[in-house]
Amino acid sequence: MIRISHLTLLLPFIFLSFIVNTSQLVFAKGTDNVRDACRVTRYPDLCMRSLAPFSNSAGTSPSKWARAGVSVTIGEVKNVQAYLANLKRHGHVKGRNRVALSDCVETFADALDELHRSLGVLRRLSRSTFGTQMGDLNTWISAALTNEDTCLDGFQGKKGRKIKLLQNRVLKAYYITSNALALVNKLATTGLGSISDP
User: Are 121 and 136 in contact (CB under 8 A)?
Assistant: First the structure.
């Protein structure tokens, strides 16, 4: 009969325990990264939920967090823009609400253009033009916020389930855009750090 020592039986459990604890440490560090990055935003809980997938890849880099914030914002604005266009085509919205909805579709298209321009700049940051780039980013992302706010203004005081759902979708995009602007402003105040000129 073969005798197996207690140590031999414990080794696999010790090894698995080490692996699990190591992965929890990596996850915890990633959570710290996103929490730290989102501290500068107006809507930190939403920021942490929307940017959590970038925790490990962005690390502590303000430029990567700004890029992630604008990327997530583009995705959200695209989703809302598609929702608005679909609502306009098939939502049976009439009268003044239809006019406001048409305005929303247009303002969200403009917001998306501003955000794409912003992401393009964030992908080509340069020490020599950093100040100008930050000014452009602030202008464009602020313009996207204004466009989203203009959409909301068209439905102020309006009632109905469809209108309330529309307002909530637009408001979420507004909050995510606001968070992206805060992350860009954080980059502007911290500078490029160790990033070299392209």
Answer: yes
3-class DSSP assignment, residue 148? helix
Question: In 3D, which of 73, 79, 76 has the Cα closest to residue 179?
Answer: 73
CA 125 to mean position of chain CA atoms: 19
Which amino acid, one-letter code, is at 85?
Answer: A
Q: Average pLDDT, whole number, for the chain?
A: 86
Q: What is the CA radius of gyration of the chain?
A: 23
Q: Is the separation of the CB atoms in 38 and 52 below 8 Å?
A: no
Which of 130, 117, 125 has its CA nearest to residue 189?
130
Between CA 54 and CA 68 the distance in angstroms is 7
**Residue whose entry in the numeric block shows the structure tokens 């929890």:** 24
Segment 131-149 shows an average pLDDT of: 98
Query: For residue 67, what are the CA distances in angstroms to 8, 61, 73, 183, 193?
Result: 49, 10, 10, 9, 15
User: What is the value of pTM for the model shown?
Assistant: 0.82
Separation between Cα atoms, residue 57 and residue 60, nearest integer Å: 9
CA dist., res. 190 & res. 168, Å (int): 33
CB atoms within 10 A of CB 75: 14
